[in-house]
Amino acid sequence: MKKAFLYGILSSAFFAFTFLLNRSMNLSGGHWIWGASLRYFFSLPILFVIVALRGNMNQLLQDMKRKPKEWIIWSTVGFGFFYAPLTWASEFGESWLIASLWQLTIVAGIFLNPLWGKKIPLKSLGMTIIILIGVMFMQWENMKSGVNQREIMICLLLIFIAAVAYPLGNRKMMDVCEKGLETPERVLGMTICSVPFWIILSIYGALKHGVPSMNQSIQALFVAIFSAVIATLLFFQATNMVKHSPKQLSMVEGTIAGEVLFTLIGGIFFLHDGLPTGIQVVGIILIVFGMLLNCKVAAQE
């Protein structure tokens, strides 16, 4: 479990690049559609090389042929319906704000347990309430300052969709895959099966907003390397190690909260994001505190 926890924390550090670079692309005029699509187009050949060198390509292809419909559906949910809304949400606030709201995925992960016939960990549910209060504090300042209420609701809706889609797609694919199929193969397979979604989105983006700039393409490449490849492999490996324990799975998914601190520091120093206000700092503390308590509870299982 300690190893899974460490992988989770490391993945949160690399996932922070998602929020930082998406915000950077947004500030430089890049459209969110290309920020989302290019991440997966660039990560595809990298993952292909990794799996090919491991000699497991044939096993992956056989597994995908066995249940093609399930692979396409849950890969699109876990990658497409997760990352497109999350990238779009970057248009509505600082990188650390989006990263903080993204912690709703911890809540979603806990409430998905009944879909697998497992109970919701009641102690983890208490920690979830703390995290939700923190999220409310994060948005309170925006509501009080008169920020467009419609934009706030759109942002929250986008993040809610992403927060549910990510753990749902990940867990469903753990059920679909054969036992011998390891994390790199699963991530490559999901990337391949989500490509139709990204092609459709890219065609719309090209017709509506034109092609991406070189600057945005380079930043999207870094997102692909740090987030789509390194962070995703670490996180999926961590969840795979504890998938039979609802509490420990909730704990590992809770390490995502580390993204808040990593993104806050990176956003202030590299993007000159505005500093959080007093009540937003309280919100950040509550979110991180809730995550740490959740980890402690899970560790006692």
TrEMBL record:
The chain crosses the membrane at residues 32-51, 71-90, 96-115, 122-140, 152-168, 188-207, 219-239, 251-271, 277-295. Keywords: Membrane, Transmembrane, Transmembrane helix. The keyword Transmembrane applies. It comes from the Bacteria. This is Multidrug resistance efflux transporter family protein. It comes from Candidatus Scybalomonas excrementavium. The lineage of its organism: Bacteria, Bacillati, Bacillota, Clostridia, Lachnospirales.
